[in-house]
Amino acid sequence: MSTPKTGTRPQRLEEILQLLLDDEKSSAQSLAARFDVSVMTIHRDLDELQRRGMVRKFHGGVSVARTGNHEIAASLRRNIATENKQRLAQCAAGLLTPGQSLFLDDSTTVAFMAPAVAGIDGLGISTNYLPLLNTLAEAGAAEVRAIGGTYDHSHESFLGLAAVRAVQELRVDMAFVSTSTADADGFYHQEEAIVELKMAMLRSARRRVLLMDSSKLGQSSMHRLGGWDKVDDLITDALAPADFLGQLKTLGVRVHVAPDAMEGITE
């Protein structure tokens, strides 16, 4: 592991999150030694991250909070469990046929669909995720539509009322979305603005596909996107509980298990 930066406080907060994503948990003493700052300084940093809902402090340590009020920045999520994300994305791309129109949301899991979808003839792709827009354009995708709105630096995407209205004006064949958590009652996300846009995409698509790995199942976050009647397909990995998948099948959800997927995807 590379030596953490010791620059500005925002840099240190980002580095702390990255370390916790890599190591699962740590302690104030260990983090203070890594960053060459006082334990008191680290406690203030952890208090701030906990206030944002990004970490969970407990007796003797700290870990990432995956069900809090704020999602981890896209710049961090993008580099987590990339092989897993590729497997789920490849499975999702296998549902496409040439000439279809589709939404791709701003999740870093769905973004891994870019190489595959760029090679399918005649697709019309709409997304609010800036890195995905650039990747698709550079890869020569047939038609790429930007969903504009208020730019959110943390998510690297366009959100807000203008973005929701832009989605509502479209009607596409398929929507591919990922989110933070799910349980038997539905699927969830930490942030209201993200929920509004994902819901708009699902409502404006004829076929709705949700990508989620098994580590997200059995949990909930603050905002509910909807029940399982709001999606047609779930793409997950082989570690997803069989009884949970069985429940979804009885509700009419088509379940696709990506081969050789591993644990630990962050949306």
From TrEMBL:
One of its GO terms (molecular function) is DNA-binding transcription factor activity. Keywords: DNA-binding, Repressor, Transcription, Transcription regulation. InterPro entries: Carb_Metab_HTH_regulators, DeoR-like_C, DeoR_HTH, NagB/RpiA_transferase-like, Tscrpt_reg_HTH_DeoR_CS, WH-like_DNA-bd_sf, WH_DNA-bd_sf. Residues 9-64 form the HTH deoR-type domain. Pfam families: DeoRC, HTH_DeoR. Repressor of the lactose catabolism operon. Galactose-6-phosphate is the inducer. This is Lactose phosphotransferase system repressor.
